[in-house]
Amino acid sequence: MDIKGIVAVVTGGASGLGDATARALAAGGAKVALVDYNEEGARKTAEEIGGIAVQCDVSKAESGEAAFARILDDLGAPRVLINCAGVAPAQKVLGRNGVMPLDDYRRAIEVNLIGTFNMLRLFADACQGLEPQASGERGVIINTASVAAFEGQIGQTAYASSKAGVAGLTLPAAREFAQIGIRVCTIAPGIFETPMLKGLPEAAQESLGKMVPFPSRLGRPQEYAALALHIIQNEMLNGETIRLDGAIRMAPR
Ligand SMILES: NC(=O)c1ccc[n+]([C@@H]2O[C@H](COP(=O)([O-])OP(=O)(O)OC[C@H]3O[C@@H](n4cnc5c(N)ncnc54)[C@H](O)[C@@H]3O)[C@@H](O)[C@H]2O)c1
Fold first, then answer.
1. Fewest 10 Å CB contacts: which of 41, 168, 175, 235?
2. Best substitution site from 194, 200, 245 to test ligand 1's pocket, by max atoms within 8 Å of Cβ?
3. What's the start-to-end Cα distance of the chain, in Å?
4. Residue 190 CB-half CA count within 13 A
5. Where is the Ketoreductase domain (predicted)?
């Protein structure tokens, strides 16, 4: 799909991987809606790239519905959805302070998995009414899992299972949407240099980078954005979860 002139929705657009992808989409000529819980951050990026900021909790049905109503009004129906909103809790099932509260597990699933599905369903509903492009394609959805979907570490039962769910919904959604010309792919990043990780001491960042076989460093958000743009442009990519990780395989801890 050609990016120029299309409407693209980027969740988690206020920060990290979403922010970088929103910038790359805008540079390619897309009109971008940055959907984020953090309205101020989304507005800042939106102003810089000529997009719009839409405050939304992706895990809530009504909040998502209001966000899409606003996007349809302000920009029109979108052809691209990038699901980057997410949280990364780390907590053992049996921690020092007792057993993990069930609500902590539920929150990770609600934001990362249900939030992804919520945006996917609303996007598909809005996109299906658009005219297909010459090849029959209407739209593209890109979700974000994690290498934790495949080798979650100790303390990642909630995070890893939320991301495994995202990888799991990719193929059935691609199969269902094939008849309306919407492709669905998921990117599973390794360790990326985003505000989440930049908060760690320099030495910790360096040692995380050294765990990556090659290149031995943290991934750059621009590298995630470059893959997202390639997926949009390469029509044969569909129904697949793609690791973007410099060959890292996470150890138990
Ligand atoms: N950075 C990494 O190393 C890494 C690795 C693997 C996977 N990921 C995944 O990539 C995605 C982006 O991560 P990042 O590193 O850019 O993180 P980040 O914290 O920089 O950005 C996440 C964004 O999501 C938003 N958000 C959180 N909960 C939300 C909600 N309920 N509704 C709307 N917005 C919400 C936050 O406000 C933030 O702007 C996440 O899904 C994360 O799990 C990141």
1. 175
2. 194
3. 40
4. 23
5. 6-190
**Nearest CA-CA partner of 161 in 172, 145, 174:** 145
What would the pLDDT profile of 40-94 be if each residue is shown by its tens digit?
999 999 999 999 999 999 999 999 999 999 999 999 999 999 999 999 999 999 9
Distance between Cα 17 and ligand 1 center (Å) = 7
Counting DSSP H helices and E strands in the chain, the numbers are 10, 9
Tell me the C-alpha to C-alpha distance, in Å, between residue 185 and each of 39, 54, 125, 169, 241.
27, 24, 17, 10, 6
Spatial distance between the Cα atoms of 213 and 247, rounded to a whole number of angstroms = 6
pLDDT, one tens digit per residue, over 187-214 is 999 999 999 787 777 887 888 899 999 9
- CB neighbour class for 203 (10 Å; exposed up to 12, middle 13-18, buried from 19): exposed
Among 21, 36, 45, the mutation site with the greatest number of ligand 1 atoms within 8 A of its Cβ is 36
Task: Give the span between the Cα atoms of 206 and 198, in whole angstroms.
Answer: 11
CA of 202 to the centre of ligand 1 (A): 21
Provide the whole-model pTM. Answer: 0.98
Q: What residue ranges in 114-160 does DSSP mark as E strands?
A: 139-144
C-alpha 17/C-alpha 86 separation (Å) is 10
How many whole angstroms from 135 Cα to the centroid of ligand 1? 33
As its CATH architecture, domain 7-244 has: 3-Layer(aba) Sandwich (3.40)
Separation between Cα atoms, residue 25 and residue 68, nearest integer Å: 19
Positive or negative CA dihedral for 169, 3, 230, 27? negative
Active site residues per annotation: 159
